[in-house]
Design goal:
This protein is of the alpha/beta class and 472 residues long. 34% of the residues lie in helices and 24% in strands. The structure holds guanosine-5'-diphosphate. Guanosine-5'-diphosphate binds next to helix 5. This is Translation initiation factor IF-2.
C-alpha cells in the first residue's frame, strides 16, 4: 500500500496508529482499513476481483479459421480393471514405432504420440482410467478428444465399465468400444453389444452410431483397425489448432526429479512451444530449459497435440492445470506470484460446488438450469426407480440429469465425477467409502443418503423449489 501511494512504510503505520489500528510492517490490512488509510492520503481505492482476473488471463485470443490447421487426436483408454487397458497401451506403444526411428519409447512421461504408416499421428494419454481423466477435467483441462472404452469379451459390462462410460459422456467426449480378448475361449462379443444396447448404446453393427472394434491387445490382432477407427472419428471431429502462435495446453504430470529439478509432461493444445519460452502454469512459471519426447530425445519445438517433457519450471503444477506461454518474463512472474498469493489467501479453497440448499440461491441469481445427480444404490431396481422419479421432477426451469447411476458403495470415482461436473451424489441404502467421504469433504461435494425413496424425492423436489434453508 505504501509503495502504491509512494509514501514510506512508517507514514502508513503511523497513520494506522492515529486511526487506532496497531499494525506491523508485514501485516495484511483488511479492505476497510485500506480504504480508510488511502483516503487519508487522498486516494480512492478500487478493488479488483483477482479470481475473475485470473479467469480473464486464461481466455485466449480466438484464431481465425484460415490460421487453424488439422491436428492429431488425443485419446484416453478407459474400462474395467483387468479388461486390458494397459496391454492395449503397451501394444500400441511398442508396435507403432516408425521404422528407422532410433529406439522405441523408452520412458513413461504420461503421454506418447505414435506415428502410423499412413503418415498420421495419434496421441495417447498413458495413464489409463476414468479417474485420472476426470481428475484432470476437474482442474479445468479439456484434453481428451476420443475415449476408447475397453471391454473384455470373455467378461461383461462391469461397474467400472459403466463408470468409464458415464465419465466420457459427462465430459461430452465421443467413445469407441474396443471389445478385447477375442483370442480367449469364451469370448462373446455379441453379448457385450447386447449389454451396450441395454444401456442405449448401439454399435454400428447394430444400427447405432458407436464405432467398435473386436481385438486382442495381447496378440495385437486388429489393433491397427482400432487405430483406423480412431482416425476416422478424429476426421469427423475436424480437430484443428493454430501452430503459429505462442503455445498453450495442459499439464499431464509433474514431479521433482533429483538431478533435473522440476520436470513436467505437458500437452500442447494450441500453438507451438519452443525451447526458451516462458511458461506459466497455475502458480508456477519458468523458462523452458530443455524439452524431451517419449523417446528421450531432445526436441526444440512441440506443436499442437504433442506431448513433451519440459525442464525449467520452478515447481510442479497439478495434472490438469493449464499452461500458457508469455512473451515477457516479468509479466509471467507477476501472474504466477499473484496466483500463489490468491491460493494462500483462500487456503487452497476449492471451487464452490452445488448442494441441495444452494439451489435456491443459484435460482435467485438466475443462472441455474440443470441439477446434475449421481445415484448409487444397493440394488438395481431401486437405482432405476429413483433415477426415473428424479428425472420426472424436471420442470421448465430446471432439468434433472442423472449423469451416472450404479449399484454399490459411493466411491472416489463418483466424487471426482461430481467435482468435475458440479453434481450432487445421492445414495440409496448405501454409504460412501471412507476415502470417498474424505475426498468429498475436501472438495465440498454434497453426499445425501436415504433409505426411503419418497424421502429422497421429496427433499430434492423442495430443493428445486428453492425451499431448503441454506445452512450457515
Ligand atoms: P487393465 O487392468 O485394464 O490395465 O488390464 P491389463 O492390461 O493389465 O490386463 C489384465 C490381464 O488380461 C493381463 O493378464 C493381460 O495379459 C490380460 N489380457 C489383456 N488383453 C488380453 C487379450 O487380448 N487376450 C488375452 N488372452 N489376455 C489379455
Amino acid at each position: 500500500l505504501a509503495n502504491l501511494m509512494d509514501v514510506s512504510f512508517a507514514e502508513v503505520i503511523s497513520k494506522c496508529m492515529s486511526l487506532g489500528i496497531m499494525v506491523s510492517i508485514n501485516q495484511r490490512l483488511d479492505a476497510e482499513v485500506i480504504e480508510l488509510v488511502a483516503s487519508e492520503f487522498g486516494y480512492d481505492v478500487e478493488f479488483i476481483d483477482m479470481e475473475k482476473q485470473m479467469e480473464m488471463e486464461e481466455v485466449e485470443e480466438e484464431d481465425g479459421d484460415h490460421e487453424r490447421e488439422p491436428r492429431s487426436p488425443i485419446v484416453t483408454i478407459m474400462g474395467h480393471v483387468d479388461h486390458g487397458k494397459t496391454s492395449l497401451l503397451d501394444y500400441i506403444r511398442s508396435a507403432t514405432v516408425v521404422a528407422g526411428e532410433a529406439g522405441g519409447i523408452t520412458q513413461h512421461i504420461g503421454a506418447y504420440q505414435v506415428n502410423l504408416p499412413n503418415g498420421k499421428d495419434i496421441t495417447f494419454l498413458d495413464t489409463p482410467g476414468h479417474e485420472a481423466f476426470t481428475a484432470m477435467r476437474a482442474r479445468g483441462a479439456k484434453v481428451t478428444d476420443i475415449a476408447v472404452i475397453v471391454i473384455a469379451a470373455d467378461d461383461a459390462i462391469m461397474p467400472q465399465t459403466r463408470e468409464a462410460i458415464s465419465h466420457a459422456q459427462a465430459a461430452g467426449v465421443p467413445m469407441i468400444f474396443a471389445i478385447n480378448k477375442i483370442d480367449k475361449d469364451g469370448a462373446n462379443p455379441q453379448k457385450i453389444y447386447e449389454q451396450l444396447a441395454g444401456m442405449n448404446l448401439l454399435v454400428e453393427e447394430w444400427g447405432g452410431k458407436y464405432q467398435s472394434q473386436e481385438l486382442s491387445a495381447k496378440k495385437g490382432t486388429n489393433v491397427d483397425l482400432l487405430l483406423e477407427k480412431i482416425l476416422l472419428e478424429a476426421e469427423i471431429l475436424d480437430l484443428k489448432a493454430n501452430p503459429d502462435r505462442e503455445a498453450s495446453g495442459s499439464i499431464v504430470e509433474a514431479s521433482l526429479d533429483k538431478g533435473r529439478g522440476y520436470v513436467a509432461t505437458i500437452l500442447v493444445q494450441n500453438g507451438t512451444l519452443n525451447n526458451g519460452d516462458i511458461v506459466v502454469s497455475g502458480q508456477h512459471f519458468g523458462r523452458v530449459k530443455a524439452m524431451f519426447n517419449e523417446r528421450n530425445k531432445r526436441v526444440d519445438e512441440a506443436g499442437p497435440s504433442t506431448p513433451v517433457l519440459i525442464l525449467g519450471l520452478n515447481g510442479a503444477p497439478q495434472a490438469g492445470e493449464k499452461f500458457k506461454v508469455y512473451a515477457d518474463e516479468a509479466e509471467a512472474k507477476d501472474i504466477a506470484n499473484r496466483r500463489a498469493q490468491i491460493l494462500r489467501e483462500q487456503g487452497m479453497r476449492a471451487k464452490k460446488h452445488i448442494t441441495l440448499d444452494e439451489i435456491g440461491r443459484r435460482l435467485a441469481l438466475g443462472n441455474f438450469k440443470e441439477l446434475k445427480v449421481i445415484i448409487k444404490g444397493d440394488v438395481d431396481g431401486s437405482v432405476e426407480a429413483l433415477s426415473d422419479s428424479l428425472q420426472k421432477l424436471s420442470t421448465q426451469e430446471i432439468l434433472v440429469s442423472v449423469i451416472h447411476k450404479g449399484v454399490g458403495q459411493i466411491n472416489e470415482s463418483d466424487v471426482v465425477l461430481a467435482e468435475a461436473s458440479d453434481a450432487v451424489i445421492i445414495g440409496f441404502n448405501v454409504r460412501p467409502s471412507m476415502q470417498a467421504n474424505r475426498l468429498a469433504d475436501g472438495a465440498g461435494i454434497q453426499i445425501k443418503t436415504y433409505s426411503v425413496i419418497y424421502a429422497a424425492i421429496d427433499e430434492i423436489k423442495s430443493a428445486m423449489e428453492g425451499m431448503l434453508e441454506p445452512k450457515v
